[in-house]
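Morning F.,

Quick status update on the modeling queue. The single chain you submitted on Monday has been processed. Sequence for confirmation:
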Amino acid sequence: MDKNFFEALSALGTENSVDVEVLVEKVKSAMLKAARKAYPDCEENITIEIDPATQKFEMYLRQTVVDDEPIDENEINITIARVFDPHAVVGGTIQKRLNIDKFGRAAALSAKQSIKGDLRDINRARILEKFEKKEFECITCQVSQVEVGGTATLIYDNTEIYLFRKEQIPGEVLREGQMVKVYITAIANKQKKPVIKISRVRKELVKRLFEMTVPEIYDGTVEIKAISREAGSRTKIAVWSNDPNVDAVGACIGPKRSRISAIVAELSGEKIDIIPYSEKPEEFIARALAPATVLRVDILTNEEKDRTCSIVVPNNQLSLAIGNRGQNAKLAAKLTGFKIDIKPEFEIVPADEAKEAPEAETDELAGLEQASEMTELEAASELGRLDGETAFEE
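Structure tokens below.
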């Protein structure tokens, strides 16, 4: 029985990542509570010995030896005492070994619940200690299981955390054993059972990846001014150099595109546009619409709650500026904080209006010719009248 107990104790410690010594103290506390319920009048006289090294598990009740009838279980008659200890004397004490089975089912369940409660507290403290300082940071985890519904179980430092489908990059297929980076968005329910919330779709993940990959960003030489992201498709990131000798865009790209390639690979091929930040709104907005070419930017309003602008692009760049399903324009708007109205350089005439234009033009010309003919007739008539009058007078 003792061997089975210590095997279970070791398994419990491994399962919960708790030192056996700590677990032993928790078990002692729980067993004392159970023993005190079974022996309510002997609370101060009960002791427990648990030694994993020697696999010893004993519970004792210290009893005072008397020469008459004991008044309760804290006393024992000298005759019975000498059965347990031949050297017992009246006025002395003996350690009577207790039978754990006597505690009964209720006491055992109470002890079990107490141990569970202690383990929850241990796990809560352990999780908080491990993750609290990593909140809003990026960590590397290993995928241990991917469920049919898409939820992935990840392992970080022997702790399981869950990456739900909505927090995974669209189109990404996770595999067991794969190492992935995730962003810790929050630690919920800290007072009871902490829940670690993680994501791979937040724009903050991209920011942390750049900080981890680009030394100039980590040391503050290059600064990330803004990020807009559509996970799985495209990200725009605006960077600024605090050192005129350091090219912010070049630092992010890295030698032979090594830095940007590593980040793109981590994000499963997501495209990344690195935009040089400008304090001039017109210039920043024009750059944000890359890869499209911008001819003119007109700031309509530049108030904190209402920033709007009008953009003019070459006709052949209109679709590029807007992007597939408006993606490029939407990301540029989020990056700059402006509502963007994109217009072509030359107004495009609809096909139906183009067909009607020649007919209208013909009618207009016919009217002008008719008016011209009438003017000539009137002039001739007037000339004839004047000529007649002149002849009459003569």
